[in-house]
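Q: How would the structure tokens look for this protein?
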Amino acid sequence: PQVDWYSLTEKKGFLRIYGSNQKIENRKQTSLIGVRQKETNFDYQTKMYFLPKKDSSEAGISIFQKDDNYINYVIEKIANSYYLKLVLKMPNEKESIIKYEKLLNYKGEVILHVVSKNHQYQYEYSLNNGNSFVSFTTSSANLILSKGYTGAYLGLYQHSIINNTDYADFDWVKHEY
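A: Here is the predicted structure in token form.
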């Protein structure tokens, strides 16, 4: 197992996840933690603080079935700008970017929100502490289906292209179904 990839004491009251240079792949160790998705319809959100020092660092929500089937809904830093990105990985296919958008008013704090109902995932975000949400996009909810006995998980994720000290602090997670 990875050592020292998270902390519950570095910032009091927060879960800090340190970036791994390993993406979600077969036989790789990445900085990812989750809970089992128990119902088809759910509401999942987290409040995250993320201001990485290095480019190509990303953090946010991951909905994952296996290491070759997941959706990552993340903030990514590129050339001192921040982008909201939705990535899909299907079995036996390369990762594909569903949507990628520059966040003009991002200051390091975001609430990422995924709602699953009526066989669709709705992705939203808030840059003003939940006072209002912006719709980012939707996708079919059947993208993360078990082809065997393993169900999906809802989780938190942080990745850095290179080994560094970048991290994401998660204030809270809300999961309702």
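The chain has a mean pLDDT of 89.

The CA atoms of residues 32 and 157 lie 5 Å apart.

Upvote if useful.
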